Amino acid sequence: MKKLINNPRHVVVESLTGLVRLNPRLRLLEGTGTVVAAEAARGTVAVLSGGGAGHEPAHAGYVGPGMLTGAVSGEVFTSPSVDDVLVGIRAVDAGAGVVLVVKNYTGDRLNFGLAAELARADGIEVRMVVVADDVALTGTSGHAGERGIAGTVLVHKVAGAAAAAGRDLDAVAGAAQRAADALSTMGVALGSCTVPAAGTPSFELGHDEVEWGLGIHGEQGVERSAVASAEATVDRLLSACLAAGRIPDGGRAALLVNNLGGSSAMEITLVADAALTWLQSRGITVERAWAGAFLTAMEMEGVSLSLLAVDDELVHLLDAPVQTSAWPAVSGRVNTEPYLPAPEAEVIPVEGPALAGPGRTVLDRVLTALQDAEPELTEMDQRVGDGDLGHSLDRGARAVREEAADQPARPDLVLRRMSATARRSIGGTSGPLYAVFLLKASEALAGIATPTVADWARALAEGQQGIQDLGGAQQGDRTMLDALAPAARALADAADIPLGQALSAAAEAARAGAEATADMAPRRGRSSYAGDRVKGHLDPGAWAVYLWLEAAAGALEAGD
After folding, report:
1. Looking at the whole model, is its pTM more than 0.85?
2. Which residues are catalytic?
3. Whole-number CA gyration radius for the chain
């Protein structure tokens, strides 16, 4: 287990203390795991929720004006005790009663339920709303009922807004119950999670497996299958939500895309895009949508999708202002015009005949070599850098190949078009470096229909200089220049032999230069941050130079 914690027995209180210290509107009740709003208006209905810890930012992250008045936390994945809940009820009651929003787990229902009875005996009016939005268990038996999971956060929002609007106890509870009844949620996990006190994962998944319909406490789901695409995953989750029958055909809905804790923000917004597209294609009007980590299961990788059937009143409550640590600052309104036309890219006109014969063969062999080398270059770059070189060059090669039919015959124009393509299609460091290399090589060959070996040597040298001027690296810094510089010299020295043989000599010089990088200390690029750890590994950028030179030489020497 690797977690940034101190003592596993103190993680909950220390985490809540950190949250409260970051928000002057919050207070932590001493000796408890209960966070309350620092100020609450007298005569206003209080909204209290909670449950086990490990679901951060739920529940304490939603305490504040317009949402929860307080949140009671137990230990990780453990319901708070009756007394903890009772203390929370007494702390938040402002004379108008308390609405408890409780997820449908046995421990939560028992502890919150008994605390509510004791509070009533003390003269505090209490209403309890139970959320059971998990549709993965719909239609099955042998369990304690549909569980309350991420959709509960939307109930928090509705109840808090109703209370802030000054509604009475029954009206606030009624609004919360109406939201709970209109909710459907289903999730999928790509990995497990580790409770700090346990020290081992709650369950194991194979590298290509996912768990469907899991709960939020690390418990296993209803089915295990092979991992699917984001679109296929969204289809299964939302199909299950609609099958629950809580949203009519052509109805209106709010969407909550919830990160279970360990998935990247990139994956979550990608899933959100797929979910919006899926719903809109089926005639569902998505009135509001949010994506992020709302109710998690520690560091579990995965996502849940929640749909709330809405009308004007519920949309109004969802739109009401809040001041909490975790509820998104964005409005949730769906952008119906997400795209803006981009300026037209540079177009290099085709002058004269199109590229054919040996020139097209060389180009095709070079592109094929880069595409075939993607796994090798990716693996090499993962050892010494950020792992993107293979993908970047593959992407660039594919982009050039898509434009191959329009390539002009003149070498300088081919290189200029390839430079423009590299700028558009290759990101990171490789894009601008290859773009300037090709541009400078193109300028060196300007107007030359049939370049000699000396011309090509000059083009290679000019391209090398362009890389040095732009990136600041020199030969010996453990970069692509350690292959390119000796290749340029070798090509210049071979000016009196056929181009195929000259390129072969240049490729061998590039190979020797690339192999020498294994013993060099990195001084430029991503490898420079890894220090001596890259020793013994070739620089992947230098190796890529050898690969495309060797491919060009091979095409010419074969007489294709």
Report:
1. no
2. 217
3. 31
